[in-house]
Design goal:
It is built from ten helices and 14 strands. It is α/β, with parallel strands linked by helices. The protein folds into two domains: about 5-140 and about 240-295, FAD/NAD(P)-binding domain (3-Layer(bba) Sandwich), CATH 3.50.50; about 145-225, FAD/NAD(P)-binding domain (3-Layer(bba) Sandwich), CATH 3.50.50. The strands form five sheets. It has a four-stranded parallel beta sheet. Strands 4-5-6 form a three-stranded antiparallel beta sheet, with no helix packed on it. Strands 12-13-14 form a three-stranded antiparallel beta sheet. Helix 3 links the parallel strand 1 (about 35-40) and strand 2. Helix 1 (about 5-25) packs antiparallel against helix 2 (about 30-35) and helix 1 (about 5-25) runs parallel beside helix 3.
């Protein structure tokens, strides 16, 4: 399963909780081992934060279930490069790796996923095992529709080529009436010493590009013509990078300064609260996070909420099957 949408995150949380519940109700050793094995492919921010948060939650859940021991739960992180969190410094990357391994997470560096057919995982180092949950968090790719269903100019990575003004560019010249911003746009990074560098596909850039694009678009609409209108160029130096490693744990690099542990986690949460709209929402989120630090995690599964029609559909299938069996029995008689 993926880890790009809110729905996927909710489904993954529910899956981890339900797999632990299923494992607690079986005496089949092999089935239990498979249910309690969780594999994440990709050691970037998405993969590390996902496995760290869910491992934290899984450990808290297992503590409430006497029939399952902590050593029964296995989390595996597969990363093809030599280190995790490549966006951070070597030192912070090493710290994050150490924290994950100290918690019992099996981190495989310089390793690739060769196969995962029917839940049988085969790694490039020859390791094989079964897992009921496999999460793909590797790589950020532009939407394929840009290549298959548009005539926009794209670069080698499938992103729309753009000017610093966020106008779509073909061979360096702006395409009239076309604009681009965000992960699918190759926007020159004017703060980099490399003239070929483009902005990283992060929310930090996407949000700021969207605001500048809106300003430029308003200026063009007010003038009635793109030609001769003074447009702003996008230039934003990365203010910092933060990653959560579970409740009260994290790593961060903010304005050239490295942070670890609770301080980094606080910075991570603080940034997200800042990005939330309305004071009411900010306060509610902060209260929820503080409660999670002071009290036990909320370990309730939201499967019935994510699929509100599941019970109705199950009942309908049951009635249909029952009617079919009765019809078959009547025909036989």
């Amino acid at each position: 399963m993926g880890f790009k949408q809110v729905e996927e995150a909710t489904a993954l949380r529910n899956r981890v909780l339900t797999r632990i519940e299923d494992a607690a109700s079986t005496w089949d050793t092999e089935r239990r081992r498979r249910l309690l094995t969780f594999v994440f492919v990709g050691g970037g921010f998405a993969g590390v934060e996902a496995i760290a948060e869910l491992e934290d939650m899984a450990r808290a859940t297992v503590r409430t279930i006497p029939s399952i021991e902590q050593r029964d739960v296995r989390f595996v992180l597969v990363e093809g490069s030599r280190r995790i969190l490549p966006e951070l410094t070597e030192e912070l990357s090493g710290y994050g790796l150490q924290q994950l391994r100290e918690r019992g997470i099996d981190v495989r560096l310089n390793t690739f996923l060769s196969s995962c057919v029917d839940g049988h995982v085969v790694l490039s180092d020859g390791t094989e095992f079964d897992a009921d949950t496999i999460v793909w968090t590797a790589g950020v790719k532009a939407a394929p529709v840009l290549q298959t269903a548009s005539d926009l100019p794209i670069d080698a990575r499938g992103r729309v080529t753009a000017l610093p003004t966020l106008q779509v560019a073909r061979d360096g010249a702006p395409v009239e009436g076309a604009w681009a911003a965000g992960d699918c746009a190759a926007v020159p990074d004017l703060t980099s010493e490399d003239p070929e560098a483009t902005c990283a596909p992060t929310a930090q850039h996407a949000v700021r590009q969207a605001k500048l694009l809106a300003d430029n678009l308003v200026a063009v609409l007010a003038a009635g013509d793109e030609n001769g209108v003074p447009l702003k160029s996008y230039a934003h130096a990365n203010l910092g990078t933060v990653a959560s490693l579970g409740i009260g744990k994290g790593v961060a690099r903010i304005m050239g300064r490295d942070l670890r542990g609770f301080t980094a986690w606080t910075a991570h949460r603080g940034y997200h609260v800042y990005a939330m709209p309305t004071l009411n929402r900010k306060v509610r989120i902060m209260m929820d996070w503080l409660a999670a630090v002071v009290f036990r995690r909320d370990l309730a599964s939201f499967g019935s909420i994510a699929e509100p029609g599941a019970a109705f559909a199950t009942a309908a299938r049951h009635d249909a099957d029952l009617a079919a069996r009765r019809k078959a029995a009547d025909s036989g008689a």
